[in-house]
């Protein structure tokens, strides 16, 4: 099976919100993997820029002190968002990767696996406004754990951004409580929720 190479130069004439979603690659490795791989759009310079701009647009004018990205793919979008905003970046890690004092939070990920997330305790002071960024919110377990870590340290969740926030129980919980942003146009949301 030969996979065609991406055209990293082609940019559509009309760049509507979410045009870059077409660059994502479907799962070809089976049920142990996510249904879609968004990382292809990061390889396309205009797609990455437009995706980050779309994710940040609802937060224009909002006070944000720091951007936090969730291990591991949230590091890409989170660091890009922090650079655009001129803010610092905080990595929220899977447990066991930080060699400093940490706060931990257990959670269940999209595949139903029990995991633990951690964050360094010296980066978030009470009242610090954090924009949380991840690649995808499917069941909401990972993002909810990140929210809990920020809030347990006294931080304020200024907003949540992801390429897609699915209409799941966890996704709805997040969107009902926090200002959220994602790159999926409303007309396409049902297809993403059904993993089509």
Give an overview of the whole structure:
Pathway: Purine metabolism; AMP biosynthesis via salvage pathway; AMP from adenine: step 1/1. It catalyses: AMP + diphosphate = 5-phospho-alpha-D-ribose 1-diphosphate + adenine. α2 packs across α3 (74-85). 28% of the residues lie in helices and 27% in strands. The chain is α/β, with parallel strands linked by helices. The two termini are 22 Å apart. The protein has a single domain, classed as Rossmann fold, CATH 3.40.50.2020. The strands form two sheets. The chain has a seven-stranded mixed sheet with strand order 5-6-4-3-7-8-9, with helices on both faces.
Could you tell me the CATH topology label.
Rossmann fold
Spatial order of strands in the largest sheet:
5-6-4-3-7-8-9
Write down how many β-strands occur, each being a DSSP E stretch of 2 or more residues: 9
* Major sheet attributes: 7 strands, mixed
CATH C-level class: Alpha Beta
Radius of gyration (CA) equals 17 Å
Order of SSEs? EEHHEHEEEEHEHEH
Total domain modules: 1
Which term fits the overall shape?
A: globular
Low-confidence stretches: none
Bin the helical content.
25-40%
Q: What CATH architecture would you give?
A: 3-Layer(aba) Sandwich
Catalytic activity: AMP + diphosphate = 5-phospho-alpha-D-ribose 1-diphosphate + adenine
Protein name: adenine phosphoribosyltransferase
Family: Belongs to the purine/pyrimidine phosphoribosyltransferase family.
InterPro entries: Adenine_PRTase (IPR050120), PRTase-like (IPR029057), PRTase_dom (IPR000836)
